[in-house]
Each structure stands twice: as structure tokens, then as C-alpha cells.
Amino acid sequence: MFYHFAPVQGHTDAPYRHFHAFTYGSESIYYTPFIRLEHGALRPRDLKDFTSGLNDNQKLIPQIIFRDKDELSALVRLMIENGASEIDLNMGCPFPLQTGHGRGAATVANKDLAHDVAEIIANNPGITFSVKIRLGFSDADEWKNLIPELNKVEVSHIAVHPRVAKQQYGGQLILDSFKEILDQSKNPVVFNGEIHTPQDIDKVLNDFNGINGIMIGRGLLARPSLIKEYLSGKEWDKADRVEEMLKFHRLLLDYYSDTLCGDSQIISKIKPFWEYAEEEIGRKAWKAIKKASNMAKYNSAVALI
Ligand SMILES: Cc1cc2nc3c(=O)[nH]c(=O)nc-3n(C[C@H](O)[C@H](O)[C@H](O)COP(=O)(O)O)c2cc1C
């Protein structure tokens, strides 16, 4: 069983991943947020995130996003040139800016592209590929084009977030479709979506016999100890969880204070740390953090936790 920390743009960048792995042990597999082409080259800040020395303490898989065969081939070549031996293919992003250009979740129903993806995977035997998908863009059956193509090749896993892109990040998970993918995929399948507690992990493992792993995004941002707790076999009480989270936060804040210039830069990088943690740290502190407009106010807000 593998545990994956889902990529989340604006949150799980190199400093966050580094201090998360440092604080909670590196049991998880980490991913870069999606890397994309800009003017025919890798976007510089994406490349910096992938090649950062801060990645040394974790297993990291870079993720790419593409709309057609040309973009995919170019990205794979550039990633290999920059040292990648594993590549995750984003076929699930629901952001309109990406789907509007045919990327992310808009690729699931693209029959020609499904064939191209399989071909490119087959033509790069030295690279371990994985794929992250949604069920489709607007129809929960769109994956039925893609999975048979992926069955022709070997990937390390297919992580499935069982929603369509139109649902964005809310609404019911479509679990029957997840089960169908699990039955039909010849490649290992990973479950991703709405896991917030150790009990949620147990339920997914229990409901979906045969999955190869669990991928958690917002649940880990809210409760960064979740996988560590689960693997230790003992749920921590809230006081312990929050104490450890504050240690993690301190390391990240010190890093940003040493490397960034000025309060507003530091605040804009550190505030997202708490975005999903309202329940964990309490509404009062959470709201005060959200409102804080300078470091003095931010530090007082954190002291309310
Ligand atoms: C703000 C935000 C940014 C995200 N960025 C990425 C990304 O770069 N690549 C990706 O594959 N998924 C991205 N995701 C999706 C997550 O990886 C994950 O699939 C989704 O949040 C569902 O899992 P969860 O319920 O455990 O959070 C993003 C999600 C959110 C909310």
C-alpha cells in the first residue's frame, strides 16, 4: 500500500514538501504541482521547484500538464533532460484556465490523445509513468476512452479522483465509477478524494479491495500528521496534532523569513499553510490569520491557536 501526498498548487511547493517530510517522516510519495510549457520551454518557476535542493529528503514525482501529443512529447523530453526518471501525467485538473485549453480533465475524453499517451509511454521504457485522472470533464463515463488505452501499457499507478471537472472540488464522489475503473484497469489504481481522518482511510481500504494506494490532498494540508498517525496505528489527540503542526509551521516560516524580502511576500507565502485547517485550529485563530495584514498581526493570530 502506497500513500501519496496529492499535489496542490499554491501549497505543496518545495519548501512545504521539505519541511513536511522533515517533520512527519517521508513515508509519503510527493508530487510537484503541475509543470507546464511556456514559450516552448519549462516554466522557470516550475523547473526551480522540481530541481530544488529542498527535494533531497523525499520521494518526489514531477507532474506535467499537456493538451496534445506535441506538448506531451516536448514536456517528457525536457523533464528527462532535467533528470526525471518518473513522470506523473495530469489528466484531471478542473481549472477552467487549463481545461479551456484542452488540458487536465479535458484530456480524459480525447480519444486521439489517449492513443498518443499510450504510445509515448511505450516509447520511453526508461521512464516510470503514472497518471492522475478525473472521471471526465462533464460526463462520468468519459474515462471509458482512456482506461482501455492505458491497459495497453504499464504505468506505476492511476490515481483517480472520482468526480467530473464540472464539480470542481465539491459535490458527491461518484464511487460506482471508481469501482468500475478499479475492476477494468490492468494498472494499479489509487483512490483520491475527501480523506480527512484515519477512519476515512480505513473505510476506503475496506470498500475498495485491491487498490494500490491512497492519495490525500486537502486532508493532509488540514492535518499534516494524518498519514503518520495512520501508519503508527494510533490516532493522535488534537493537542498533539496542533503542537506538531505549529513546529512544522515554525520551520516553514523561518525558511520564508530567511529567503524572502519583506512582510507582504512572507505573509502571502505562509498564509495558505492554514487555509484548510479551520477545524483543526479553531475558527477564531483561523479568521484572525486570514485577516492579518502584517507580520505582527499574523504572529498574534498564530498565537491564538
Ligand atoms: C487549490 C488546488 C490546487 C490543486 N493543484 C493540483 C495540481 O497542481 N495537480 C494535480 O494533479 N492536482 C491538483 N489539485 C487536486 C488535488 O491533487 C486532489 O486531486 C484534489 O484536491 C482531491 O483530493 P482531496 O479531496 O484529498 O483534496 C489541486 C487541488 C486544489 C484544491
Describe this structure as you would to a colleague.
This protein is of the alpha/beta class and 305 residues long. It folds into two domains: 2-232, TIM Barrel; 238-303, no CATH class. It is 46% helix and 15% strand. The chain contains 15 helices and eleven strands. A nine-stranded parallel β-sheet has the order 5-2-1-11-10-9-8-7-6. A two-stranded antiparallel ribbon has the order 3-4. Strand 6, helix 3 and strand 7 form a beta-alpha-beta unit. The radius of gyration is 19 Å and the shape is globular. The mean pLDDT is 97. It comes from Lepagella muris. This is tRNA-dihydrouridine synthase family protein.
The percentage helix is 40-55%
Portion of residues in beta strands equals 15-25%
The count of β-strands is 11
Largest sheet: 9 strands, parallel
Low-confidence stretches: none
CATH homology group of the largest domain: Aldolase class I
Determine the CATH topology of the largest domain: TIM Barrel
What is the helix tally? 15
Number of domains: 2
Task: Supply Rg.
Answer: 19 Å
Shape, please?
globular
CATH architectural grouping of the largest domain: Alpha-Beta Barrel
Bound molecules: flavin mononucleotide
Protein name: tRNA-dihydrouridine synthase family protein
Organism: Lepagella muris
